[in-house]
Amino acid sequence: MTATRSVLAAQATDFPRWFQDVIAKAELAENGPVRGTMVVRPYGYAIWELLQEAMNRRIKATGAVNAYFPLLIPESYLQREAEHVEGFSPELAVVTHAGGKQLEEPAVIRPTSETMIGEYMAKWIQSYRDLPLLLNQWANAVRWELRPRLFLRTTEFLWQEGHTAHASAADARAYATRILYDVYRAVMVDVLAIPVVPGRKTRRERFAGAVNTMTLEAMTGDGKALQLGTAHELGQNFARAFDIGYLSSEGRRELAWTTSWGSTTRLVGGLIMVHGDDAGLRVPPAVAPVQVVVLAVKDEAIAAAHTIADELTAQGVRVTVDDRADQPFGRRAVNWELKGVPVRIEVGPRDLSAGVATVVRRLRDSAKTTVNRTDLAATVVAAIDADQAHLLAEATERQVSRIADVATVEEAIEAAASGWARLPYDAVGEEGEDRLGESGITVRCLQRPDGSLPVEDNEPGLTAYVARSY
Amino acid sequence: MTATRSVLAAQATDFPRWFQDVIAKAELAENGPVRGTMVVRPYGYAIWELLQEAMNRRIKATGAVNAYFPLLIPESYLQREAEHVEGFSPELAVVTHAGGKQLEEPAVIRPTSETMIGEYMAKWIQSYRDLPLLLNQWANAVRWELRPRLFLRTTEFLWQEGHTAHASAADARAYATRILYDVYRAVMVDVLAIPVVPGRKTRRERFAGAVNTMTLEAMTGDGKALQLGTAHELGQNFARAFDIGYLSSEGRRELAWTTSWGSTTRLVGGLIMVHGDDAGLRVPPAVAPVQVVVLAVKDEAIAAAHTIADELTAQGVRVTVDDRADQPFGRRAVNWELKGVPVRIEVGPRDLSAGVATVVRRLRDSAKTTVNRTDLAATVVAAIDADQAHLLAEATERQVSRIADVATVEEAIEAAASGWARLPYDAVGEEGEDRLGESGITVRCLQRPDGSLPVEDNEPGLTAYVARSY
């Protein structure tokens, strides 16, 4: 594994550089030609596809349906909601010319689609019978980023954005909360093996146009925070701006209550930053495009490698055979480590005659064990399940151990040098947020003492999670 | 069904208007706010999702892998291939401002990604071992259309675009041909129940930058042609422009041969135009979001409707229950007809006591039959399979019967008033294409006498298919 370490910066020395190196060497993505854009390479995209499938299934289970709204939004739409346009204006990409002519009204490339979808919700909703209206779309979006970083903050990103309309504030809140927990947290924890802290954003960290932003925050390998998904209560702000109204069962005209919620290709960045180690990526089996690689050490082992692969495929395992026996074994092994494939099976001529194979579990310190050929499939299938759980346990342990309970903003600033801080929000307040901000630290989210989410900005007795973030 | 007919223009009277009406009334899509853009509504998108799944599976079976390339292409990229930029320039949407500033180099929104992907192929391909490189992406694209029409020609459309590089012209051709037949034609015929005529485009109808465009042409309900998918041999044009080279096994530096191929949301338009009738849409079961609707005529039948639906769901049928017993039965039935749901099961109180249900097969003249409750599930499952095949047979029959064999351009022009014409291309030629063009008619494609595809532009003895088109 020495060879691997040499191609990547060490995490402890320069984590952001390590992150860049892993993305390049594991062939996950690279920079696009227009500043801040990203090319997602096949291996990175395959992870995204598996993640997307898991997310899409859970979104549909909440009753939402997929649709597709245009990329190009008339500039005037954004201007209808004051906070929204103020928040997004600096990040817009604008189409001024098309078809060889200047456009009468410039069109912006969607930074998010509240305004576009608001316009259509207003048309489609007539009566209380049409509510709730639960829409989702899988799409690209563009926000001109000042400090782009692959997967985490790219000028163009891929995401799902959900947009719903409800007959009451309570119904809107209940649905957005369900998305936060049953969709986002479920995918993060059960699929990506990433523990997350749920909470409410403070006023200053809120989505532009929302009355409440709920977030899920993950801890990266270097102890920073990464926001992985948000669900917003939009109150009646967009309903008012786009006239999303309905006739109640009593025959009165009422304004709807809307929500929006999004999760992006940043989730792949989260997976890298939470699970990766100095040898490279470590992919949770649930989203691993290759769960098992069978490595034929020499030509004589190629046929056996394929037989093993077929057995595993029959058990529903995603498996690939590395039969490039003409290339150095060590380099191939290191490459699969870099790519974070959970289980590597090595088969050489000697193994064959001894009726065994070597199993290397990437998610468990790459410990090697010799397994009888007859037990191989069962052992590997069990390892896949166990190691998915192991990754989550490991990340949870780190998260718990690196959150320091402190009492003051000064202590929080000190603690945030190496992890997160947790302290009473009453000891922070808006003034404390200013001071944290001067040190590049933010309040990631607020929770009630029992871990549940506050429903008001100024509930007393809240706990603040404070950290540096990506 | 009289009620339905009144909400749609009659096909025989005004087919394009009927098309628009169906899209609106079946809630498939509507116009976006920026001219030519499209909102794909949930019902239309659900059809697209099923189609996409079928297409994606077959694309992957050819060995291609999915990736994602940026939406924004530097303007200079397009200029590197002379024919390509000439062909696409008039249709480009250009981003001149972003992040509050004018861009140093304007970026175009991808009209197609040969140039973007060519740039990365050049980086990723080193030796013959890296070939073939088989990439695909699911994405949106923008081409500023002069005469937009929902699904058929929208300013923004959804599609998959495949881009591959090969070590030889023969390999490139073989792969593009495989995509044409094993992916595109397979999906059109086996999934969408749309018979298609494969052929080679004439020089003037070719993709900008290609040396050969292969196409699949469908016949619409009004006897016109609709190009549903194309695969292009790009020769070494883009390899030269982007320096996509490789070291051969003999150690020589060679230029690669590339292909590209695309299919779009137009396929949904094709489905509507090929199968729809005066009562509305008719959706092939393979892509029907709802294959069976169980309609409870009265409140007393709601429980039974759900039981029937559960039985069908258990058999893998996509089924929905219409339990809006408080709304007029006739209006509900007409609505499901409009949406083209293949099978409708009607259950009323009298049916219940007689132990029967009424089955209406939308894809077979909506004939009603009374079926014993015990035979219901088996009957419906059999009907779904049979009616998928029936749709294809019906469309094939129409296509065959409306292609007229003629001998001259004049006869072709006459025949194209009500269908397609087929004649020797030697009797047309480039001069004949001009004359056809004056009447708004084009050569859709060329075939050899045995139905196979010509590999040269000027092969003698070719058959031309000639028609008006959408």
Automatic annotation (TrEMBL), chains A, B:
<dbReference type="Pfam" id="PF03129">
    <property type="entry name" value="HGTP_anticodon"/>
</dbReference>
<keyword id="KW-0547">Nucleotide-binding</keyword>
<comment type="similarity">
    <text>Belongs to the class-II aminoacyl-tRNA synthetase family. ProS type 3 subfamily.</text>
</comment>
<dbReference type="InterPro" id="IPR004154">
    <property type="entry name" value="Anticodon-bd"/>
</dbReference>
<dbReference type="InterPro" id="IPR045864">
    <property type="entry name" value="aa-tRNA-synth_II/BPL/LPL"/>
</dbReference>
<dbReference type="InterPro" id="IPR006195">
    <property type="entry name" value="aa-tRNA-synth_II"/>
</dbReference>
<keyword id="KW-0030">Aminoacyl-tRNA synthetase</keyword>
<dbReference type="InterPro" id="IPR002314">
    <property type="entry name" value="aa-tRNA-synt_IIb"/>
</dbReference>
<keyword id="KW-0067">ATP-binding</keyword>
<dbReference type="InterPro" id="IPR004499">
    <property type="entry name" value="Pro-tRNA-ligase_IIa_arc-type"/>
</dbReference>
<comment type="subunit">
    <text>Homodimer.</text>
</comment>
<dbReference type="GO" id="GO:0004827">
    <property type="term" value="F:proline-tRNA ligase activity"/>
</dbReference>
<keyword id="KW-0648">Protein biosynthesis</keyword>
<comment type="function">
    <text>Catalyzes the attachment of proline to tRNA(Pro) in a two-step reaction: proline is first activated by ATP to form Pro-AMP and then transferred to the acceptor end of tRNA(Pro).</text>
</comment>
<dbReference type="InterPro" id="IPR036621">
    <property type="entry name" value="Anticodon-bd_dom_sf"/>
</dbReference>
<keyword id="KW-0436">Ligase</keyword>
<dbReference type="InterPro" id="IPR033721">
    <property type="entry name" value="ProRS_core_arch_euk"/>
</dbReference>
<dbReference type="Pfam" id="PF00587">
    <property type="entry name" value="tRNA-synt_2b"/>
</dbReference>
<feature type="domain" description="Aminoacyl-transfer RNA synthetases class-II family profile">
    <location>
        <begin position="35"/>
        <end position="284"/>
    </location>
</feature>
<keyword id="KW-0963">Cytoplasm</keyword>
<dbReference type="InterPro" id="IPR002316">
    <property type="entry name" value="Pro-tRNA-ligase_IIa"/>
</dbReference>
<protein>
    <recommendedName>
        <fullName>Proline--tRNA ligase</fullName>
        <ecNumber>6.1.1.15</ecNumber>
    </recommendedName>
</protein>
